[in-house]
Design a protein that fits this description.
This protein is of the alpha/beta class. The protein has 12 helices and 22 strands. Helices cover 24% and strands 26% of the residues.
Length: 482
């Protein structure tokens, strides 16, 4: 018999990876320490995972004052190893962040030189529930300098879990400013500014808080740009151009405006591969010079806004995803005009519970994934499955009307659908329970390639009795959710 300690390393690695579910907090780090105590083999494999991130936590989420806050960390355990690539700093304060920052800076000054923190350090700052604290400009600048001196190799920062106030914004601006000429990636959920110009950024992710406070970025090096919840005219504010903005290396762009219209500044995107836009930012197409081909195009908007794109000369696209919301009788006609550009696959999500759909509205033959949150009857579902010959995933929500009793036939002579459906999901359906069970069963029997059935609030669908006439149902995995 093979003993546990003599199992191949591949088996140990698979087991440890299954047990290790990430390390996003000091608590997770402590939980995973037990992986190091199993045996020598597990310790050698688990050490790089468990010791990959350093944590410094000052205060707690329940902080109600800035006195008697404690600093906890795992740096003392990590300092003798070279596995650490990321540092996570969590600062909780009520009025004044300076005492906590000074303790953190002192700790880093003693230990950071022993850690490799220059690859992908992540810095998180969060503050307590009290409203805006008076900014302590000079003290914040001084302590930011100390932090940057202790961590000289920072190339990536992540400002997460932050509630906006002036002191937090100023602190983050000072810290980012120290790394302006070396940062490769930055993620932030809080507005911040600095008088420094970011010259080397490759990846930017801004999920802002609607404040009109933004840093300045050179567009030449950007490869990925994701912006959400920001004011209009974002390009002129981020990149300080009054004419056109050229992004020679940008491959991925996601943008969502909080309100208002987009810039009127022309954008040159010669190497774009993935474009995801939502809301009124769909108007970006009228000012952007796109390449002749895109790998992926995602649109989330109303039919009215999509209408404005009908005359736009779209590039050819491998994969298109369209999410239409709001009441609009012409939404499908307008969307089908766009979907004609689809190549390998098209994902379509229609969200209008008040709308009643018919099968003839689905004229795009490229649809491979369809999600409908609307009023639809069973005969319409049958019609959709009959004409969408590439459909693989169908998700239905809203109201389903069993208008055709023939759709409830459960005989051995049901004609299979031509659609290669692999997954059928029924999410919070409004329909009499007994009729829904029969209709669902009838649909499943006609889907010879179905592999998965997901049903909410429908847990009594029995397929075993149909295996002899419809052998494929034996391989269908049923997932019933209350």
């Amino acid at each position: 018999m093979v003993s546990f300690s003599t199992l191949p390393d591949d088996i140990h690695i698979l087991t440890i990876n299954r047990l290790f579910n990430g390390c996003s907090s000091l608590g997770h780090f402590k939980q995973h320490l037990c992986l190091l105590a199993i045996n020598h083999a597990w310790r050698q494999i688990a050490l790089p995972l468990v010791y990959s991130k350093a944590f410094i936590v000052y205060g707690t989420h329940k902080t109600e004052s800035d006195t008697d806050n404690e600093l906890t960390t795992n740096i003392d355990l990590l300092q003798h190893y070279d596995f650490t690539k990321t540092i996570n700093i969590q600062l909780h304060y009520y009025d004044n962040p300076i005492p906590g920052l000074q303790q953190i800076a002192a700790l880093l000054g003693c230990n950071a030189h022993r850690l490799e923190l220059d690859l992908k350090p992540t810095v998180h700052f969060s503050q307590g529930s009290r409203a805006d604290a008076e900014p302590l400009e000079k003290d914040l600048a001084d302590v930011a300098f100390k932090l940057a001196t202790a961590l000289p190799g920072i190339t990536e920062v992540n400002y997460g879990s932050v509630n906006y106030n002036r002191s937090a914004s100023a602190l983050l601006g000072y810290i980012a400013g120290h790394y302006a000429n070396q940062l490769r990636a930055i993620t932030s959920v809080i507005s911040f500014t600095t008088d420094k110009l970011f010259t080397q950024l490759k990846e930017v992710n801004f999920y802002m808080d609607y404040n009109d406070i933004l840093p300045k970025i050179v567009p030449d090096t950007l490869e990925s740009l994701s912006i959400a919840n920001v004011p209009p005219n974002i390009f002129s504010k981020l990149f300080q151009f009054e004419t056109d903005v050229v992004f020679p290396k940008l491959a991925r762009l996601y943008i969502h405006y909080a309100s208002g219209d987009s810039d009127q500044i022309p954008l040159a995107l010669p190497n774009l591969k993935v474009l995801k836009v939502s809301g009124k930012c769909c108007r970006i197409f009228h000012q952007a010079a796109l390449p002749a081909h895109l790998e992926c195009l995602s649109l989330i908007s109303t039919g009215e806004i999509i209408q404005q794109l009908q005359n736009f000369n779209f590039p050819t696209v491998d994969n298109i995803a369209v999410n239409i919301y709001g009441a609009d009788d012409q939404a499908f006609a307008r969307t089908n005009h766009l979907l004609r550009h689809g190549g390998k696959c098209v994902d379509m999500f229609y969200n209008n519970p008040a709308a009643t759909l018919t099968a003839d509205q689905f004229t795009c033959k490229h649809i491979t994934k369809l999600l409908l949150d609307a009023c639809v009857n069973v005969s319409t579902i049958v019609g959709i499955l009959a004409q969408l010959s590439r459909l693989q995933i169908l998700t239905l929500g809203g109201i389903i009307d069993v208008d055709d009793q023939g759709a409830l036939e459960l005989t051995s002579s049901l004609e299979p659908f031509t659609s290669p459906i692999k997954q059928l999901a029924l999410i919070y359906i409004d329909c009499p329970h007994g009729l829904m069970v029969k209709a669902t069963t009838s649909l499943v029997l006609r889907m010879p390639q179905l592999k998965r059935l997901i049903a909410h609030q429908i847990d009594d669908i029995k397929l075993d009795s149909y295996v002899s006439e419809y052998p494929h149902v034996a391989g269908v995995k049923c997932i019933f959710k209350k």
